[in-house]
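ASSEMBLY PREDICTION REQUEST
Request ID: AP-0331
Submitted by: J.K., bench scientist
Number of chains: two
Total residues: 379
Priority: normal
Notes: Please return the full assembly, not individual chains.
Input sequences:
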Amino acid sequence: MFKVIGGRALPAARLLAPRCGVWVESVRGRKSRNDPPAKSKEGRIKLPPPVDPVEMVVMKERFTEYNLIMRALRLEFKEEVLRKKYEEETGSLAEERARQDAEEHKILMEWNDAENRRMLKIRQLRVQKETAEADQRKLEMILKRDHERQAFIQQKEQEILQLQEDAKNFITLENLDQRIEEALDRPRNYNYAIDREGRVVKRTVLD
Amino acid sequence: MPMKGRFPIRRTLEYLQKGDLIFKNRVKIMTVNYNTSGELSEGARKFVFFNIPQIQYNNPWVQVVMFKNMTPSSFLKFYLDGGEQVLVDVEGKDHQLITQHVKKILCKSEEVLHVEALAKMQESNPANFGPKKYCLKECICEVEGQVPCPGTTPLPKEFTGKYRTQMAAAQE
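STATUS: Completed
Returned structure:
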């Protein structure tokens, strides 16, 4: 008849929310508003339960004392929790810790800066070396190319000289007759064999 | 079922939990600039490949961003609370050296981690009953082997106070 509204659905994150226990609303159960009460309940007078005044007084006293103590304990515990939280965040110890943290952080940042400067120096040296090496290589290439060009020119000159030398022995129109006469006077025999080193091995006699 | 990818051990929980780079609370963003080729960036590449998963696993609230081939040299940059930026040059360094360096300047020390672990253990004291946010269990009826919650199964008659008072009254 009395439906309990679930306490689990409410957010339990409210740290110090008063826990009022069960929240109940009156509901008429199976019957609706306009249905008449049952015949068996005719003439029923609902009376509250009988109260013994002496017992009531005693119970009231005891309950007030009990509630007082419980409430005091609860508030004590809540205060302790709050105080701990406050000290954790803004207490003197926390300030001390924060200051120490800041100092350590500063020291570590300085160390990091020193490391970065060291790396910078190393990098500068490396870059310098690389540029120097690149220049060196360029110079060497230029020298090599010059050298090669010189060698080429030399070779061509040698060939020209050789050709000039050979030109002296050429057969021209002027000494044509003389050369023919010489060739006829001195017959040459080409019938010979040579070995691998080029020495003449055998000659066949020409008829 | 075989593991997938190169060095699939990086995806195992054991490997991830072994990572010991736990940043301080004020580190919010970590940025890694590195190059995909080059001898000098090798350490940074290895750091990204092996150590970044561990870092992200152990610091789920830190944003880790990677940039490739944006600068000629490789470096790490941390953005802290309050706008401070910390630059760490890692050109030519080995990935283990980088880890040690970062651990020294920006991670929680062993003592701090120890203290935090102790505090966490104290919080999860099984002897404390209360709201789920602060304690493990709310009522003794949730523990196995104890009397079940009378809200779900009715208690045997003998355990109810009502029955007991009745019996006591009947005896008198």
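REVIEWER COMMENTS: Residues 129 and 135 of chain B are 6 Å apart (CA to CA).
SIGN-OFF: pending second reviewer
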